[in-house]
Amino acid sequence: MSIPPGFLDELRNRVPISRVIGRKVVWDLRKSNQAKGDWWAPCPFHQEKSASFHCDDQKGYYYCFGCQAKGDAIGFLREAEGLDFIEAVRLLAAEAGMQMPEADPRARERSDRHSRLFQLTEAACRWFRLQLQTGAAAAARDYLARRGLDEAAWARFEIGFAPDSRHALTAALREKGFDEAMIVEAGISARPEGGGAAYDRFRDRIVFPIRDARDRCIGFGGRAMNPDARAKYLNSPETPLFDKGRNLYHLGPARAAVAKGQRLIVAEGYMDVIALVRAGFEGAVAPLGTAITEDQLRLMWRVSPEPVIALDGDAAGQRAAQRLIDLALPMTGPGQALRFVVLPAGQDPDDLIRAAGPGAMAALLAQARPLVDLLWARETEGQVFDSPERKAALDRRLNEAIARIPDELTRRHYADEIRAKRRGLFEADRPGPGRPGRSGRAGRPGAAGHGPARRVGASRAPHGPRPPATPIQPVSAPQSGEWLLEGASLLICALRPALVAGAEARLERMAPQDADRAALLHDLLTGGQGPAGLRALETLRGDAHLGLTPGVIEAQDEAAVAAILNNLLDRLEARRAAGAELARAEFEIQGEADEGLTWRMQQIARARHRAERPEMEDSGDLNEDRDAMTSQLQAWLSAQIWRKPPRR
């Protein structure tokens, strides 16, 4: 139906937007200026206590400074009431006392037929409810009683019963004046494939009416009483009124509950919703026999910016969570988030509430996990990351998932969270004083075959007697060159946070073995500020060995300080590469080396550490030392000097 623009302008002028919105909100009269038509209230679209929702009668628009919802009176009715455009205009016109423009005959015919279909579904709903009181429904009433539902619950949720008859409902509706074609069109009855009279679609089932956001009956869901039925649950087919992928069970009452401060909880089925509502969680909804769709996600976000998805603790519930991750990531962003609650294995919300009470459900909801946690768990749980290739594959999968998030700020925060989780997972892989390495297993610690790994460089049993060996000093020992280079780099980044972004990739590879320094690095990369990081910063500030003069710390030239930082990181990476090569060479010749070679290796290590100085020497010298060391090691390996010459 086409509406002339002049008609809409006149409609907006006649009906103040505050009158339309005022039916859904409580105005903050201290903040509002009624004389100027300037109104403020808590937003009806997301949960808040402050009045950040602004309504301007003169301009005819509303705007929320919290969730950025905005629009005119017609848009508000569409969002808040679930109306389509024509329905919203018609409602405002009635309030303004204006006559709707004449519609073309075909549009009017479609509108009249929709109205007639709604009358038919309401008549079917009343008939189902009456059948629950009959003798044929005794087993259904017993079942409902076992599930803890009394007559008050039957009435509240309009629960009914479809008797085991092929034509009872169809005949009853025809007696009320509905023709058979319309009964079939509404999904109440179906025609045999080979032709013939229509038959009732719902038979020997407990029936739950499905209503839209305007409380109109659009379809039905039925639970079979016969355990051998082909389908335990059966929903109405797609009809002019019912699109199961664009509706939610119990949507209207849940919307009202969320507006009063309740959570929006998404369960799996009708009985779960009923159990949650009766336990006090009135903002419960459920998809209609299918996996959650994009349209249903958008519908949830119109009700609440952060719905809680409550999934059954079985394999099907886990699969549903995995599918929902991929569906939600390209749609997530500010005001469009998800949290997840996974119930104990073998239980749904109804089971949990009946077994442990509403408090158990409330405790789970309070611990709901964000979407990023489920993404991480999906990619890591039960896997072993004991090789660079496996770690690289994990990084690629996570990066591809995060790249699908359209909002740049949200994408950046996801990347920060994943980096933090990755460091936590792989931190144990890095050997350090008092902390042996692990194999990067993302499952239960201590599992068979994945205990603590042997430290690289640990000696095998010697072949024959040998003098006690002096262990090679750890490269990160206090006052060693690497220790000082690492500390100086961290101190510069802490004093000049603007430099962190440019060196982020190099800082991530730093991996300090000192717990406080690791905490400081984590704070620098994530923008946090924890007690361990602050403790490390104070220690670095007071360390005179770092060689950072007040001129370096207080220099105004950001580029000069950045150059100093890059120079420090260059030296640190070069030293660690040299140390790793020395350890690798020692490891390769273990078990076959004689005492002479072991002594030479120890002398190289001692000489290297004697050469360490608190002041920062030129990085070119370090590269030359590393090249000389590499050449010497390669010569020894090529000559196989560990092999004793044959006796003559």
Automatic annotation (TrEMBL):
InterPro entries: DNA_primase_core_N_sf, DNA_primase_DnaB-bd, DNA_primase_DnaG, DNA_primase_Znf_CHC2, DnaG_bac, DNAG_N, DnaG_primase, TOPRIM_DnaG_bac. Residues 423-477, 608-629 are annotated as: Disordered. Its cofactor is Zn(2+). Pfam families: DnaB_bind (PF10410), DNAG_N (PF08275), Toprim_4 (PF13662), Zn_ribbon_DnaG (PF01807). Binds 1 zinc ion per monomer. SMART domains: TOPRIM (SM00493), ZnF_CHCC (SM00400). A zinc finger (CHC2-type) spans 43-67. Its EC number is 2.7.7.101. It catalyses: ssDNA + n NTP = ssDNA/pppN(pN)n-1 hybrid + (n-1) diphosphate. Residues 442-458 have a biased composition (Low complexity). Residues 262-346 form the Toprim domain. Residues 423-432 have a biased composition (Basic and acidic residues). Monomer. Interacts with DnaB. RNA polymerase that catalyzes the synthesis of short RNA molecules used as primers for DNA polymerase during DNA replication. PANTHER family: DNA PRIMASE. Contains an N-terminal zinc-binding domain, a central core domain that contains the primase activity, and a C-terminal DnaB-binding domain. Belongs to the DnaG primase family. This is DNA primase.
